[in-house]
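Request:
You are asked to prepare a plain-text protein record giving the amino acid sequence and the backbone structure tokens, at your earliest convenience.
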Amino acid sequence: MKKILLSTAALAFVSSMAFADGHSVVRMGTEGAYPPYNFINDAGEVDGFERELGDELCKRAELTCEWVTNEWDSIIPNLVSSNYDTIIAGMSITDERDEVIDFTQNYTQPDPSAYLSMSADADIAGGIVAAQANTIQASFIAASGATLVEFATPEETVAAVKNGEADAVLADKAFLTPIASEDADLMLLEQEEMIGGGVGMGLRESDDELKAKFDAAIASMKADGSLNALLTKWEIGGSF
């Protein structure tokens, strides 16, 4: 996967200069590994629902935005450290995360979490269930009777099912559905979980002005139907 790499010091410098003089160059941080929300296309560029959404939000907010990729497990710490200015990475709004960073209003409804397995009778109640680390799905499994195994990337969770390390993986249904459609060995189970409060943009708690700009842009997209159009295009459930 092609990454857009800049040093921590350089990124922090760009961010501080951008906001010091009032010129809004906003660095949009995403994972680039969670389709259809975000992924790296064949040209090595950030693509997906959140790329289209983020570009439109920046246009409406009259902001100049640049895209940066960051691994999921450090995506919040690197926002707080000013390596970029937002998180737009399929991140569900939770009380735990809200204690560390701030969120805009949600731009998706809560998406069902689904189980992907190689067997219709997989033991998801007391067996081994995989999830990406530091996700709402991992927290859900940890609080259930199942045994949680965590992986750094979503691809690794699916691989764990295929190689027998896990009985199933729990993730956003929008992520798992195309995987199940393309692999005859895998299937979605009937049981689904409704967890999380929808997906929003993460920002530093000190960036009230930036949050207000994005909140207004999201609200305008909800009002004119363009957000629903994007959700439909990328097959992400739940309209506004």
